[in-house]
Amino acid sequence: MSLAPAPLTRLSSSGLRVASSGRRTIGIHAVLIGYALIALTPVLLIVMNSFKTREAIFGRPFFPPLPGVFSTSGYLTMFERAHFARYFANSAIVAGAAMTLILLLGAMAGFALAEYRFRGNAWIGLYLALGIMIPIRLGTVSILRIMSSLGLVNTLVALILVYAAQGLPLAVFILQQFMRQVPQDLKDAARIDGMSEYRIFWLILPLVRPAVATVAVFTMIPIWNDLWFPLILAPGEATKTLTLGAQAFIGQFISDWNAILASLTLAMVPVLAVYMLVSRNLIRGLTAGALK
Amino acid sequence: MTPRVRYFPTHIVVFILPAAALYTAFMVYPLFDSLRTSLQGAHEGGGALFVGLSNYVRLVTDPVYAPRFWGALQHNLTFFAIHMLVQNPVALMLAALLSARDLAGRALYRTVLFAPTVLSFVIVGFIWQLMLSPLWGVAGGVMRFVGLGAYFRPWLGLEGYALVTLSLVSVWQFVGIPLMLFHVALLGIPDELREAAHVDGASGWRVFWGIEFPLILPVVGLVAILTYVGNFNAFDLIYTVKGALAGPNFSTDILGTFFYRTFFGFQLQMGNPVMGATVAGAMFVLVLVGVLLYLFAWQRWVEARVL
Fold first, then answer.
1. If one looks up domain B52-306 in CATH, what number appears?
2. DSSP secondary-structure letter at B203?
3. Half-sphere exposure of A197 (CA within 13 A, CB side)
4. Which long-range contacts (CB under 8 A, 24 or more apart) does B239-242 make?
5. How many angstroms separate the CA atoms of B142 and B269, rounded?
6. DSSP letter for each residue of B54-92
7. A32·B188 Cβ contact <8 A
8. Contacts of A198 in chain B (CB under 8 A)
9. Which of residues 50-79 of B touch A (CB under 8 A)?
10. Which of A38, A42, A52, B67 could form a disulfide linkage to A56, CB 3.0–4.6 angstroms apart?
11. Which of A141, A217, A244 has the most B C-beta neighbours within 10 Å, making it the best mutation to test the interface with B?
12. What is the pLDDT of residues A83-134, one digit of tens each?
């Protein structure tokens, strides 16, 4: 490379880059839109067809549910035959209670591990973190034995305890990292004011709210969606969760397409709605964590 | 800095004990108790007798268990390989595009691309069962529209295709997780590094492979180990679409479904908790080998490379 014409080449090459970057941007959008269609089309087709007549579902699957082909017969069958309200309530109780335990106990342990230096701190941290990588399902034989000796089979409590144990390792690990970043001055000032360590914990907790929200969503999704433990620990009609209930109901009505499409839609929409509400903050929280 | 505790630290115990107790009682203890069970014979008198590894020998040699065990293991490897070869490269490509500077609509793309990941296996399983059903003809219709109609098959029902099809369904659902991990890692790379390379005349392709990819190698390893461990959690999708027998003719049987059948029994075969625990024990060893390789071999290699 000669030195003299360098500014010139740089100028022209950057001009070239502007032109090619326009094409590149279009290319990027084309690929992303293409994949977005792959991600969304199946979901949209299910929701759309759940509001159509049986003939229209089969005859014109890609046609929107306009008057003429509109029908809610699937939803009617479902409300008659399935106890989706109860399943939904069970799922909400299990997920809500497990989440509360995970967040509260996880934050407490994370706070202690981040805040105090004591013998065995690192070992306890490691012990609690081990569970992040080992699937709890591998202990199922023993978990079922424990639950039946405690008389907890076919109760929601069994699910709550197992999910809390499953979610704690990751919660402790993440919350501990965030607790470390809370300025020390704040805690020291509180100590000088004579606050107890417990009051200091409650003082710190709101400061790590974004981390708590991220942990909440990422432990919530697998709990809400799990089929394994409801199937094994609480398969009774009274304790069925939404995921198990939908699985059993659809299995029975496999030839009633209206009912299947309706129950899939009903099982999907609450999750997707909550996700749409929090997704912006969730992903921002994740990226902020990476950028710091 | 942090206060060094000299008196008996009651508050530390109060903070840590509840989490540690719950985790120990319902996760650590069951894992060990289950491993212990796998080393015992089911004794006539109801007591348990230590039999060493003979249940494991039975698992890999007995004509009732061995063919299913080796078959399931092989299917797990296929399942894993498809995720590594399809899910993770697609996620990396999408993440690279998504991380382009000043990309309009990035938040919307992220929301949409991650959406299938929040759905349950059960819903995803049924969605694709309907989509691919020859009865409904959505997949067949799309293929005819692009001129590939002759290639449509009822893939989920064919022995040679069902496992690959289900693996791809799982890829469709979970591509969002590696996508987000790669995306976050790429956003963390300082712009100056990229700029410097561009000024030197490197193409986008070369900047990516020469600068960005080596910097996100730690995340590549994390994605690989998460994919590997997730492989042993896969049960719900197969059970939803194919039932506990993982048909046709066990062609979609993976260790998760095999574990379930062995533990609970099916049709004519009685459930067997001891052999169930043995299957879980074998899976535990496989997970442990993977995690240890990741922690010691891979992490050490990456640290030596990056630093």
1. 1.10.3720.10
2. -
3. 16
4. B239/A227, B239/A231, B240/A227, B240/A247, B240/B121, B240/B122, B240/B125, B240/B126, B241/B125, B241/B126, B241/B128, B241/B129, B241/B156, B241/B166, B241/B169, B242/B156, B242/B162, B242/B166
5. 42
6. HHHHHHHH-TTTHHHHHHHHHHHHHHHHHIIIIIHHHHH
7. no
8. 11, 14
9. none
10. A52
11. A141
12. 888 998 999 999 999 999 999 999 999 999 998 888 888 899 999 988 888 8
Instruction: State the Cα–Cα distance between residues B307 and B305, nearest whole angstrom.
Output: 6
- Rg of chain B in Å (alpha carbons): 24
A156 or B9, higher pLDDT: A156
Please state the ipTM of this predicted complex: 0.86
**Domains of chain A by start residue, with CATH:** 18-72 (no CATH), 82-252 (1.10.3720.10)
Supply the pLDDT for residue A287: 60
* Mean pLDDT estimate for chain A: 84
Whether B140 has its CB under 8 Å from any CB of chain A: the answer is no
CA distances from B274 to B48, B147, B258, B264, B278 (A): 10, 53, 14, 11, 6
How far are the Cα atoms of A284, B187, B216, B219 from residue B183, in angstroms, in the given order? 12, 6, 10, 10
Question: Which pLDDT tens digit goes with each residue over A207-245?
Answer: 888 788 888 888 888 898 899 999 999 999 899 998 898
At residue A9, does pLDDT exceed 80?
Answer: no
| pTM greater than 0.90 (yes/no) | no
CA distances (Å), origin A204, targets A190, A210, B4: 10, 12, 19
